[in-house]
Amino acid sequence: xxxxxxxxxxxxxxxxxxxxxxxxxxxxxxxxxxxxxxxxxxxxxxxxxxxxxxxxxxxxxxxxxxxxxxxxxxxxxxxxxxxxxxxxxxxxxxxxxxxxxxxxxxxxxxxxxxxxxxxxxxxxxxxxxxxxxxxxxxxxxxxxxxxxxxxxxxxxxxxxxxxxxxxxxxxxxxxxxxxxxxxxxxxxxxxxxxxxxxxxxxxxxxxxxxxxxxx
Length: 215
Hints:
The structure is a single chain. This protein is α+β, with helices and mostly antiparallel strands. The protein has two domains: 8-122, no CATH class; 129-211, no CATH class. 40% of the residues lie in helices and 16% in strands. It has a five-stranded antiparallel sheet. The N and C termini lie far apart (46 Å).
């Protein structure tokens, strides 16, 4: 067994020139106490004109799906232990032959397969909706102002802060801006013409002070 704990799996649709996050597979515990797995499609993927379902049991007509065991379409990606090359697969992926965690297996020996979908491990996220809201409010910015300065859709930020969407790519950008003031300042400079001069100067001052350790 590995001591590596994977909290969730990001599933990407990858083509010759594109790579788009289709959704996230997580361990789940329903309100009834039933344990299993939950798969959630990303909103942007459902709106994508090239989207295809990750499996027949998870059609694009839905968004969230539950299963007591790992979804069959995902189980099929994991080679059988009876396969003569199974031990070789495990060694190449850096896991023990005895590994039985389905999410570890899926992101190791089941990472790539005949379909366009790629499975990537997602470790525990530290920058979430609450942190995003705190960051925006620390700058004294409204949703609209924050969106203009950092090139985000206000509606997306609102949903992320409310916990109604994961918005993983957006959260990654926000975390970078929060941790690296110079990067945030660079992005603000790019969008300077979109906001009032007083607002830009006020926010720039906050980041300058943060960057020099004065705030």
